[in-house]
Design brief:
With 280 residues, this protein is of the alpha/beta class. It contains 10 helices and 11 strands. The chain folds into 2 domains: 153 residues, no CATH class; 114 residues, Transcription Regulator spoIIAA. Strands 1-6-2-4-3-5 form a 6-stranded antiparallel beta sheet, with helices on both faces. A 5-stranded mixed beta sheet has the order 7-8-9-10-11, with helices on both faces. It is globular and about 55 Å long.
């Protein structure tokens, strides 16, 4: 399954992205939109469900409400995302919308570096951002989604230079995976996923991702970082990003994921923190 993620602090930009995704023939049923704002959910829903085929299929145009651990009700348009939202509990569709919109969870604080699997989405939502997630097995659909989200969310242009590489070395107390080149759709994402899966299967739960040599990150690469974060945390592990290159750090800041991931300036700092955490 390929995953592309876009983060938006501006409603107009999010609507523009949804329109562009649909125009680029990304099926509405592959687009998930998460927000804390009921008007925003309704506005996006008008675009997602304006297709006559969806209307004839009986798909409801109104949003659904799910309860996310540590944050409360979240408004969702599109497919269920419970597998990446810490298996949230769906709220009864009859829930009064006014109650939802006035719920005090909106001010719920989330600590930096939270161990909860849903920390990424919780942080984005609490800070007033909206998130678009496109998940598909189709490479053609994934390419169309990445093109839109790269432009409207990350503000990056597709590049054909270089290839994605991942190398791993073991040090006392941790494994270090060094990413170089590109972390992009079909170029580095699968390598990273297989690398992380192998480390977790070997019960290696302390992992550093060294991004010093990573030159390019697209929305699929961002989705893969989120997937990696979820995979490691769900196994009780610890994940730290190390020394992102300047352009990668900029993208992490633009999407605000730098406030979710643990980021260390160098490997020694990250390793020392691991060691202090495990000290009796």
């Amino acid at each position: 399954m390929k995953t592309a993620v876009g983060v938006f602090s501006n409603l107009d930009r999010a609507e523009q992205a949804v329109r562009a995704l649909l125009k680029n023939r990304v099926p509405a049923e592959r687009i998930t939109f998460l927000t804390r704002s009921e008007p925003e959910a309704n506005s996006i829903g008008n675009h997602l469900y304006s297709d006559s085929a969806l209307q004839n299929s009986g798909t409801a145009s109104r949003f659904s409400v799910i309860s996310v651990s540590g944050i409360g009700p979240v408004l969702v348009q599109g497919p269920d995302v419970s597998d990446i939202l810490d298996h949230p509990r769906r709220v009864d569709s009859s829930t009064d919308r006014a109650t939802v919109s006035n719920d005090p969870w909106r001010q719920t604080p989330v600590a930096h570096g939270s161990d909860d699997d849903a920390a990424f989405f919780r942080r984005m939502l609490i800070e007033g951002c909206s998130v678009i997630v496109v998940r598909t097995d189709s490479n053609q659909i994934a390419m169309a989604a990445v093109e839109v989200l790269d432009k409207l969310s990350l503000g990056v242009a597709k590049t054909s230079k270089g290839r994605g590489h991942v190398s791993v070395r073991q040090v006392p107390g941790a494994a270090i995976a060094t990413l170089s080149g590109k972390l992009a759709l079909d170029d580095g994402c699968l390598l990273l996923r297989e690398t992380i899966r192998a480390l977790l299967d070997a019960n290696q739960l302390r992992i550093l991702l060294n991004l010093e040599r990573l030159d390019f990150l697209d929305s699929a690469g961002l989705g893969e970082l989120v997937r990696t974060h979820v995979a490691v945390r769900s196994r009780g592990g610890q994940l730290t990003l190390v020394n992102p290159s300047p352009n990668i750090r900029h993208l992490l800041q633009v999407t605000r994921v730098d406030r979710v991931f643990e980021i260390a300036p160098d490997e020694l700092t990250a390793l020392n923190k691991f060691r202090r955490a495990s000290a009796p």
